[in-house]
Amino acid sequence: MRFEERTIGKVFIAKVLVSRITAEVAPALKADIVEFVTQGHRTLVLDLSEVTFIDSSGLGALIGSLKSLGDDGELALSGAREMVASMFKLTRMNEVFRMYKNPEEAAVALA
Amino acid sequence: MKILLVDDEPVARRIHSTLLRSQGHEVEEASDGEHAWRVVQESQVSFVVSDWMMPRLAGVDLCRRIRTAALDRYVYVILCTSRGEKADLIEGMDAGADDFLVKPVGPEELRVKVRAGERVLSLQQGLAQKNNELARINNQLESSHKLIEEDLRAAAWMQQRLLPSQSLEANGLRCQWRLEPSGYVAGDIFNFFAMDEQVVGFYILDVSGHGVPAAMLSVTLSMILTPDAARGSPLKHLNPLNQQVETISPGDAIRELNRRFQSKDDRYFTMIYGLFDTGSGRLRIAQAGHPGPILINTAGHPQIIGTGGMPIGLWPEIKFDCTELSVSAGDRLLLYSDGVTECVNSEGEAFGESRLLSFLAKSSTQTLDTILDGLLGEIRSWRQCGDLGDDISLLAIELSESLDLASR
Questions:
Q1: B224, burial (CB in 10 Å: exposed 0-12, middle 13-18, buried 19+)
Q2: Homologous superfamily of B2-130 in CATH?
């Protein structure tokens, strides 16, 4: 999965560069997030501002990543657009993931 | 290597064949072109060294014949000419000769040109072998693919048999449905049945992912989601206080399902489960991450019920909406899967909730059957291309006008 990576303080921000998170890329997404944690990043923000669509496999991968992080770290989301935001609302995942408007807001909240 | 040496002049033929034999090759001699042609056809010889000027069939014509014939192998041809003229060279190459020797032919020149030809031949033979291997593998792949398709078709048929019968009625409720799997098998499933003389149950669920793994879970679920308590259904339980088998609430049923189906691999399913009590006229709906059902009242106003809930299978404790409302005779309820609203057209725009709601408002006076066919038609023309992208499930329930709820 392609990301644009940067850090703000100790917050690691990975911007997803694909517009559709579907079954084909979901396993790679989860593997990459787990890899970020393995590399030592404990506070992660996944920037979804380029993502216009996420399917059930994509949601499963995000949830799987969150679960595998466990107490080892924090995974938050930022920039969720219409379709993604409404899917998260329907599945109450907006109560499971911390969600922010943009990475800067997330970085401030998670610092 | 076996070489066919063609020359009508015996002395030259003897000299060249001796040379070739001394260089380790096996030589078959032909004194004219027609004889040589017969040898090419009847044997497996792949290397021809031929004189040009010969009666009956010239070397260049022998070459043409070899090139145009449908032989089962490549034949390397060296033409020998006494006139090393450019025009001859060109005519010979045009006729398909691979190389040239100008008489008198020196032994070293003969040796290296034959060796170059050997190299080309072995490349050619290597290619032919690889092609055969590829063709064999292709055939194997085709057979495997056919087997896999047969398996999928059988699985699809099995799934079809688990679907409710086309037109259902229970306790004064009518039900119609449509299921368009995106592949052979679907991760969506739904059903509608009488729980007892008074209560009707219905559900729709959507397993995450797609293909065979999702379908396997959806089949498993559809087999246990029955009103038959004896088959381990999570929808009923034995009340310890009165030893009666009772229908449990939609919320408790979801919680029981969540308890039984905790996933080890990020798989989950979304679900709507509802119970309609014809005695009280009350509808209870539990919504676990699935799009809310749409209630269309007799005035034709469609309304989405519920705001959401967590899907089943991800965490031991989940929170989800439970809604209870009164419904009247003539009211209709449509349950659907997100394949409907998320169906995108060629511009990437989704069909969406608004379009669905306005279609239902427009078609509210039609029969369930007509509405479902009409909605599928709308989705297909939205999509334009053949496949619909995701499973499309529609379950429409109608409270019969004859249902006498007011008096109960």
A1: middle
A2: Response regulator (3.40.50.2300)
Query: Residues 334 to 353 of B: which have CB under 8 A from any A CB?
Result: 342, 344, 348, 350
Whole-model pTM?
Answer: 0.80
Q: B218 in contact with A at a CB cutoff of 8 Å? A: no
Name which of B285, B294, B399 is nearest B357 in CA terms: B294
Distance between B361 CA and the closest CA of chain A, angstroms: 23
What structural domains does chain A harbor? 3-110 (3.30.750.24)
Q: CB contact, 8 Å: A59 with chain B?
A: yes
Quote the mean pLDDT of chain B: 91
Is B164-399 the same fold as B2-130?
Answer: no
Query: What phi and psi, each to the nearest 5 degrees, are found at residue A19?
Result: -95, -15
Q: Which CATH architecture has domain B164-399?
A: 4-Layer Sandwich (3.60)
Neighbours of B396 (CB within 10 A): 25
Q: Where are the domains of chain B?
A: 2-130, 164-399
Q: pLDDT tens, A19-43?
A: 999 999 999 999 999 999 889 899 9
Q: What is the pLDDT of residues B233-247, one digit of tens each?
A: 899 998 889 988 899
Q: Cβ–Cβ of B319/A95 closer than 8 Å?
A: yes
B281–chain A nearest CA distance, Å: 27
Strand, helix or coil for residue A11: strand
The verdict on B183 touching A (C-beta cutoff 8 Å) is no
Instruction: Decide if A83 and B310 are in contact by the 8 Å CB cutoff.
Output: no
ipTM of the complex: 0.94
